[in-house]
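FORM 12-B: Structure-to-Sequence Request
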């Protein structure tokens, strides 16, 4: 949840996501996971300094006033308008995979700078989610994204949508003005060959079982460009991260020069 950042030029600092809105030059009291981690795991003390962010942009220097196993009280400093967001707003529409694979995708996609993650269930999905379990998984993935932002120094946490059927996602996202690609190993075009997408791009990645013919037809009818990543067939989690990296290198904030 809370991680350490090591810098050769300075002492180690810590970043903490606050589920409560943070106000500059005020006090902040946190309980639950944040307090337990700072007090019990990190064993930080009154007077120790850290950085706090609430996902609304920017960050705040903070000093610990009181820390116990149950409560963390902070004295907040001035707002620092630091921005680490990509100019390319990537939405990853990810077929839900089994076990820790989906956790891995959420964590690494956050580190790579995606704006939104939409988990979807496809015809060939092996994962089945009841409404109650879907809500729990969404909350779990949101915490993973928050933790990843602590580590990678993002101050805006990507949104995690509620899991839904891919057909329902298509029905709710019919804005053809947003460029979109669907990954297919047999696609004639490589991903970098598509026209520059401007400031937004949607990437659709299938689960372990891939897409059905009807889903591929639906994607084509929605104006999605079928693209390949290379000559090798990648696992779903590898494909998602490779596609995001290609997009950031081609049109986002990984470009050189």
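FORM 12-B RESPONSE
SEQUENCE OUT:
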């Amino acid at each position: 949840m809370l991680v350490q950042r090591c810098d050769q030029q300075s002492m180690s600092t810590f970043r903490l996501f606050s589920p409560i809105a943070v106000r500059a030059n005020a006090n902040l009291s946190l309980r639950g996971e944040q307090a337990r981690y700072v007090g019990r795991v990190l064993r930080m003390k009154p007077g120790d300094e850290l950085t706090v962010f609430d996902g609304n942009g920017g960050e705040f220097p903070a000093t610990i006033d009181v820390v116990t196993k149950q409560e963390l009280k902070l004295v907040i400093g001035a707002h620092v308008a630091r921005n680490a967001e990509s100019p390319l707003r990537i939405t990853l529409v990810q077929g839900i995979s089994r076990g820790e694979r989906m956790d891995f995708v959420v964590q690494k996609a956050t580190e790579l700078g995606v704006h939104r993650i939409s988990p979807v269930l496809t015809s060939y999905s092996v994962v089945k989610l009841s409404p109650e379990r879907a809500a729990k998984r969404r909350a779990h993935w949101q915490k993973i994204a928050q933790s990843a932002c602590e580590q990678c120094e993002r101050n805006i946490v990507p949104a995690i949508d509620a899991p839904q059927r891919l057909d329902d996602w298509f029905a709710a996202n019919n804005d053809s003005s947003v460029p979109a690609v669907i990954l297919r190993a047999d696609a004639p075009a490589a991903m970098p060959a598509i026209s520059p997408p401007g400031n937004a791009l949607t990437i659709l990645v299938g689960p372990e079982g891939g897409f059905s013919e009807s889903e591929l037809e639906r994607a084509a009818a929605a104006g999605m460009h079928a693209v390949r990543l290379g000559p090798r067939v990648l696992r779903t989690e590898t494909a998602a991260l490779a596609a995001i990296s290609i997009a950031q290198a081609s049109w986002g904030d990984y470009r050189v020069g």
